[in-house]
Structures are given as C-alpha cells and as structure tokens.
Fold each of these.
Amino acid sequence: MKTSSKIVIAVVTVATLGARAQGQQQAPDITGSWERYGGGRGGGAAAGTVPPPAQQPQLKPQYAKEWQDRVQAARAAEAKGAPLATGYTSCLPDGMPTMMGAMFPLEILQSKGQVTVIEEAFTQVRRILLDKPQKSFDEVEPGFYGHSVGKWEGDTLVVDTIGIKENIRYQNTPHSPQMRIRERIHLVAPTILWDEITIEDPVTLDKPWTFTYAYRKMPDYTLLEYICEDNREYVDDKGLQQIHVPSKP
C-alpha cells in the first residue's frame, strides 16, 4: 500500500471516530424546577448569565398598526385602573411561547424520547418529542402549545414548534397559522438555563423575531397546584376585566 493511501485511510478513520464521539455526547441534565432569572430579578448575576434585552417585533405595516393599537389600548386601560381582559380573566392558559416567559416556576422533566415542560400557573403541560420529524402545518390541529419536536445538538436542545392558535398571542403580537417557533435551550452556567426563542412568520413579520429567557435552578422547590376555579373575574362587553362582587344579603 502506498504511503499516500495510508494517510487517506488514517484521516478518514480519525474523522469517523470523531463523528461517533460527537454523536455519543451525553445531553446535559436539565431536569428540575426553574425560576425566571435576570431582567431585574437576577440579583448578583454572574457575567454572561443574563440575556440581552428583548427587541420589538418587526411586523409588516398592516400588522404593526394593529399591534400598536392593542399596546396603546392596554396602556390607556391600565392608566385608568381598568385593565383590559387577558386570557387569565377567562381561566385560559398562556400557551406558547408565553408560558416559557411566565413569572411562575417551571419544571422540566427529561425522559426517553421526550422533554416535558410544566408551568406552575394553571398546571400547563408542554411536550417536546425527541428525534421525531416535524409535521406539516396542515397535519397539526392548532392548540395552545402546538406540536413541538426537538433534538440534542451537543449540549443544546433544539426545538421546532408549529400549530399555535391565532388567538394565542405573545405580547399582543398578531401571527398567522404559518408561525414557527424555534428554540435553543442550553445551560450557560451550572444552574442557569437559557431559552433562545426565534419566531418566524412569513405573513406577519418582516424578519424573524428573537428574544431570550433565562432561568435559575430551584433545587429544593416542588411545583404547587394552581387551578383557576374561583370564577370571580369576567370580561365585560367593552373587553375590560371585571370582578363579581357578591350582593349583600
């Protein structure tokens, strides 16, 4: 065998072994309870653990006006002390991607073929199916959490979600049935987790919209039961949040 042939075989062998080693890399263990971190809530934050400030969405003109009108109406209502009704008023869950930015704790459970995310508020459950092909938009019945598939790329959980109901809006931002949510979930420190979220929508957005949430591990915390059952709040005919006041006997 010529020397040049031996060199080629050696290079191919090293490359193959390297690829196998990379494929066998163990995913990090992110199981546990997590609380939002940063944004004024990460006191004593270590450098590089608090994500950059979120940017506003770059909406197409017709949708930008709708979004601005909604934001201004919400601010005006808050100033008057009569806030606009939200999904919480009707006991509706956050859905995606709002649940990932909730001020309530989250629990993440890793199991074979699935990563499960549970939000304390309303005991919301989201399932990320691992190493499965994504469905087409037509195959997914729109819901609060959509259809999420993911895979580990080294130490990062890469997730793709489609099928969110149009009335489930993140920060009042309009979207179409073609909205796609991409996430890159990874540890930036032993107890600090980031979820880098990118929203794509060819109908409403001029360009993808990216923002990041950070979480701090809560080693001794167990999620509490949170059920919306008192029915004190309701939405009036003006879209305002109201509270039923019991009549005096």
Amino acid sequence: MDFPWLQPEFSPAGVVLGLALLAYLVLVEPVLGLRCYAYLRRHRRDRSDALLRVYALTLTVEGSWLVLILIILLVSPDLDPGALGLSRPAGPLLGPAVAFTTVAVLAQIATGVVLRARGVSVPVAGDFAYLLPVTQAERRLAGSVAIGAGVSEEVLVRGLLIALGVGVLGLSPLLAAAAATALFGLVHLYQGPLGVLLTTVLGAIFAGLYLATHSLLFPILLHIAIDVRALLLTPPRIDDGSDRQEVPAARADAGGLG
C-alpha cells in the first residue's frame, strides 16, 4: 500500500525536537501516568483538589506537546503540515471512514447518555476510576481534558510519531503506525494490562482512520467521543445529592480513557 502524501521532511532542529518528544513518551510519560494515578489513589478522598490538580497537569503537558509540534513545523520549512495529518480528509476510503466515524461517535454518545440516565454502567477493561469527576468543578474541567486529550494525543502519536518513523527512522508507514500504536498503549500503563490492551486496540483504529483519510480529523473526533463517554457520561457510583461524593472503587465500569 502506497502513501505518497506521507513524505515528511524535517529540518535538523525539527528532528531533534521530534526525537525529544519521542524520548519523553517512551521514558517519562508512562512513569508520570503511574505516579499521578498513585497520587489520586492516596489523596482522592482527603484532598478536595487532588483530581483538579491532575487534570490541570494533564492539560499543561498536552498543551506543551502542541506548542512543540508547532515549533517543529516553524523550524522545518519543507515539512508539509499534511504529512502530520493536518489536512482535509481525502482518499478512496473517505466514504467508508466517514460512515464508520459517524456511527462510532453517535454510538459512544448515545449509549453513554442512555445508560447515564438509567444509572447503568457497562463493565469494560481499564483501571481509571479515580480519574472520573464527581463534583461540578471536576466535571467542567473533565470536558476540557477529554477534548485536549483527543486533539493533542492524535496530533502527537498519530501525526508526529508516524511522520518521524517514516521521515527520520526510515520505517514504512504501516510499521511506523504499528510502533506508534504500541507506544499509545504503553503511555496508558496506569490503567493496568487490560487497559493497555484496550487503548492499543483503539490506537490501531485511530491509526487506520488516519491512514485511510490522510487526515487526523476523524481520529480526533472519535477519540474525543470516547473520552467524553468515559469521563462525563459514566453514571456516578454514588449520588447523594451533595456536591462532593464518595470516590468510586478502583475498577471503573466505564469506557476506556484514551
């Protein structure tokens, strides 16, 4: 399978910054995720701002990724943004991709809304219950986290990392996508083995949508829908009518957070 649109040309400075981001994802992000989740396990019940602090850190880190990717584009004048997936969708598989994404997004949102209204959860692999918002302040910031993760993770993992694999490491697009997908699972190590497996499968779907449409638009939309379903449409474990509620058990009965 040929991908003539995926011909990234990084400048030396762009290569250095790109490899630095890759090293961060491999060496730092999995450890940071484990440490943040351990912090929530210890302090979710005794510190009212524990989750808000983790949300704020998440938004800061992921915002930094986007800033660095913008700098890479600025210092690499020959790097076409389309080689990072920053382009309009195209290609012969665009129609099926539109249909798949539309159905998947609507299914995520509709299922979440219906089950939340009924107070029912769907058990799925992945340990991330301490990330679920309880108070109104937490829920408001959780929406930003869901959108921020959907945009930043797709631009970094599917956009930049696949481009680095092809343009710098000399990998084929499919092999670069496979490596990026494996790394996407690794950075969700805090969710446990089943959570890593689930996010790896989701990463493969996102990568498939990207390569099929030459664009990150559909992976971003689906990624946001999944995170909104996981963070905002999961029925609360306890609803006592108060602003603060008991934190749920460690094993979440909700969709995977990507």
Amino acid sequence: MRLAAGIVLLLVLGGCARPEAARPLGLAYLPASTHHYRYESTTTGTERTAGGGQRQDDARRTADAVWRVVSVDRGGAATIDQTLSGGGGWRFVVARDGLVVGAPAPGTFTVPGSTQFLAILPDRPARPGDGWTSELHLAGPTTLRVTSRLERYESWRGRQVAVVMSRSTGPFDLATGAARSRGTVDGSCTTWLDPASGVVVKVDDAFTTTFATGAAGGPGFSGTYRLRLESTDQ
C-alpha cells in the first residue's frame, strides 16, 4: 500500500510540474565588439555551362572568421564586417530577430537565400516547442516563407543556449543586372544563441537548390551549400 501511495504521489507531483517559462530571444551585439568563429563552408553539386556541358562543382573551405561590429542602430541592428583568414570578407547587417541584409562578396557564388544564414527569432517571448512564421524577401519579386521553432535549450561550454531552427522553401525568380535566374530552394538554418549575451555561438545551415540562368539550356546549378560556424571565444 505504501509503495502504491508513493507512486500515486509521484504521478501527481509530475503532473503539477510547471512548464518552462517563455523567454525573449534577440541578438544584442555591442558596438566595437569583436567575435571569433571557426568557419567551414561546403558546396557540392553540378554546374551546367552555357554550352550545355556539365561539371562537378565541389568546394570546401575552412578558416578562422572574425566579426567586427562596426555600429549598432537604435533598433539593435548591427553592421558587421566579417574577415576570413587567408583572405575574403563580407559586410552585412543583422537585425535583432536574426534577419540578415547584405549582398555577398563580389565574385562569390551564392545559393539564393543562403545569405540568410541565421535562424529567424521570435518577436515575442517563446518556450521550447513554440513556432512562428515570417517572410524572407530576396532580390526582385521573390519572397520565401519561413517557418521557425524554438527546439530546446542545451548546454554549450557551460552556458545554457537556445537552439532555434528555421526552414525556408519555395520558388524564386531573381534578376541581377542583365542576368535572370529561376529555380527552387530549400534551406534549413539552425542557430545556437546565448540569450544572456545575445550573441550567436554556433550555426549549422544547409541550402539545396536547382536553378537555371537565362534561356533554356543556359548556365545553371543543382546541389547543396552548407555553412558551419562555431565560436572560438571563451
């Protein structure tokens, strides 16, 4: 009888456990601050040339990345200069909700939508399991629907970080100068955010796309681009 009563008590107490409180999530980079990441990018796919031929387009790069926060506006949007060891750089603006604005570096191959390498954060406090939707506007008349979710909190180097995942899918129709590209993209962005500091500590993204440029039979690409970042700051 005592054992049965103990089991019932545990069940009752477990049923009365309070759900985790909703917490606000937002980026909060400070002006003139510097952040260091380990950078890894991988492109795997097939490129179709203008003459109708095909070639494998596989590339992998690892580097140390430095983010220097140039300025932060009143709304919390941070202008950041990223430089990579071995050469290369990119200036972008990231809002408090993770929305990234910035053209890729000149001469850099970019999967449409992949410049949005961070998950979109909620505009209200959230708890694990909560989801929300937003829109990602690409150059031209293209808008991708983005579904996001706070997956969980987990420990990262002794800190409790939020794990947020966003997925963006849809067709696109982009015009850059005289060139026009049409295709589809399916992107998945996972961001590990330290809610105490408002700093991204880890990123894992994958974008799969198929697109063609110009008339039928013109240049195009089909494949996957993946980006990983992880903070090396202590």
